[in-house]
Amino acid sequence: MTLESTAPTSAATSATTPQRGPGARYVGRSVQRVEDPRLLSGRGRYLDDITLPGMLHAAFVRSPHAHARIVAVDPSEALALDGVVAVYTAKDLDWLAPMVSTGPMREGVVAQSRTPLATDVSRHVGDPVAVVLARSPYLAEDGRDLVEVEWEPLPPVLDPLAALEPGATLVDEALGTNNISHLEQSVGEVEEAFAEADHVTRIRFHSGRSTAAPIECRGVVAEYEDRAGGRYNVHSSTQMPHLLRMLMAPVLGVPEGRLSIKAPDVGGAFGLKCSVFPEDIVIPAVARLAGRPVKWIEDRWEDLAAGVHSKDMHCTMEIAAKADGTMTAFRGHFVTDSGAYSSIPFTPLVDSQVAGVYLSSCYGVQNVAYAVDNPLTNKCQIGAVRGVGWVPGQLAREVAIDELARALEKDPVELRLQNMIGPEVYTTPFGQTYDGGSYTASLEKARDSVDYAAFRERQAKAREEGRYLGVGFSPFVEPTGWATSSAAAGGLPNGFFDTASVTVEPDGSVTVTTGLHSHGQGHETTLAQVTADELGVPMESVRIVFGDTDTSVFGMGTYASRSAVLGFGSIHESAVQVKDRLVRLAGAMLEADHTDIELVDGVANVKGVPGKSVPLQQIALFGYFGGPARPDDVQRDGLTATSGYNPGETYANGCGAAVVEVDVRTGLVTIEQLVAVEDCGVVLNPTIVKGQVAGALANGIGIALLEDLAYEDNGEFVSGSLLHYLYPSTTEVPDLTLHTIETPSAVSAGGVKGVGEAGTISAPAAIVNAVMDALSPFGVVVEKTPMTPEYLRELLRAAESNGSAPARH
């Protein structure tokens, strides 16, 4: 795996050497992750490591049916088992408020509510119906298997397109419709552009159903303190402690101040753990009823069947173009198979709407229209998972562009370059304001990285030998730094609020608390780098604290590639205030004007006066205990500052490229080369960026070739283990070629943009286009992911039967 940095003249140069001279900046350097020694030596503390005195263990009774009426629940045999303490159903939890989706906050969205345990009807395989508490997890599972549920199976709704038809069976009769949202938006002269086009390309593409499948499944440990009005203490494997508290408290019927959320080390999340689930409510509720702490740890079947799914979207994509290849209009229709419930808080629009809103991407097309529908079906709910709807939207658009190139007999790279926007700030037809990027440069870098001209010669020679190679490209724009402005631009009109608190302790060390959360991204390292630079202190003196609503300042959590932007900005705002107080203190101590003081490596120096300095520890002691000799603002405000930060819209960009070989006898796809060009603005830590992009690319390989959450025609879930739900291993992920370009953001502190999802967004389309390119002699048209060997062989057999296949060698 290689990493190369490229900095345009407008960008800050990123140094990747680990050496650091006196006063050199930490940002831009590959500082080793400070959390790794703890995690690699087994000293991490994950949810299942938490044990409380008197703790019980929970197991959920779940529906084996896609759609069924619950006639009766008989817990008597379970309760007779020694070690089982209690069995609770929805009737025992009728004092809870319903869980309501955030639909009312968006125009055109139907609000849906549910009870944490199914009351009368189960709506998908894995829907929780009852919970068993026992002295051990094994006894809880044994008790679960003894709970008798009388079911009345109902016809399942499994086809999202059929669910939109008049008279279709309703998944949730209370709503009166299966379609929880229909949205449309059109800008420019779309119909005229299509009517006047020299050529129209129209494709249908189905982006398959996948999920995050983190190494650590979900889990909750909860206790209820029955004093002073009652208080819940909840440990959760979550990405968003404060937001989870805000959404849980009304359902539990308590003020937020009586609900504490603690997120320990989290073993991967990828968006799945930024939803609110029934188990999040049920476990603290039954801890209250039982009068004892309760732990629930999700098993893999539950994770796959009843967590959240993602990207199951039927896309219709149309491109209007002139004969010379100028694209004049885009039109898309995106239908998300939403599953049985509207996920909380993001709803299935997190897939469908963002696919539509960002339809134009990095192309200068001014006539754009989209429509989205979100029908309910009797499957697991759709929620936010890495790349969200940008992935299926990217697939539909980029596959259609390659189809257009074939129809016009134009080179697909040149066709894209012909239609791309420039590097300057740009406003899209739907009003998103890009903060500058390297759109053409990224595509050109990817093209050169695969040695495009030489590849075409090699491809032609291989075809003469009966081997089929292909290359595909996928330039992208990724919305990052998800906050109020960017969310509104993306169709989510909700305010966001994020803060950081910076404190210089009496000994000169620094404590930073943030509402962000790290579950693999290395925040303890990168945020310490930022803090050290902003304050002029050694990085080793900085401690980053997060994950506890009792001790960390408020923030909306970590998802949507937001932490680099929000973390840098909020720390910067707070650190500037603290640093100003420090230099004023130092000025008083050194009898110098504070404007002549500089802080470098934890020492305050007077500019131009060698040897006149004071270490930060002495400054801090003076700040805390210097009495009236201290400046007024320090006496009033101390050495702590807390600031919010809400940036403008920030957009990363880049390009993925894939070179593949398809074995036409077996349908197996071998990825020969996978390239990622990433422009995430100023790079905080090249090694961490490399890791984020590499992991996202692996995720994209899985989406393109392997990952499929499958249901039988009767709604039975058949992907309930990692034997059946396949994601990439080292045998499927090739050596990766990673390049970075730095185009600093014009609107964020430090010029930073986000980075976490780019590879997942770009890789699937690049791989699909490469496979289509490889199989172009057969006239094969790929219409869905994952491209399993069985699916590709089916397409090839069809080509052979209609006579379009070339002669075998």
UniProtKB/TrEMBL annotation:
- Where is the stretch described as Disordered? 1-26
Q: Which SUPFAM superfamilies match?
A: CO dehydrogenase molybdoprotein N-domain-like, Molybdenum cofactor-binding domain
Domain (Aldehyde oxidase/xanthine dehydrogenase a/b hammerhead) spans: 41-155
Protein name in the entry: Molybdopterin-dependent oxidoreductase
**What InterPro entries does this protein map onto?**
Ald_Oxase/Xan_DH_a/b (IPR000674), Ald_Oxase/Xan_DH_a/b_sf (IPR036856), Ald_Oxase/xanthine_DH-like (IPR016208), AldOxase/xan_DH_MoCoBD1 (IPR008274), AldOxase/xan_DH_MoCoBD2 (IPR046867), AldOxase/xan_DH_Mopterin-bd_sf (IPR037165)
**Biased composition regions of type Low complexity, renumbered to the chain:** 1-18
Task: Specify one Pfam family.
Answer: Ald_Xan_dh_C
- Give the record's keywords alphabetically: Molybdenum, Oxidoreductase
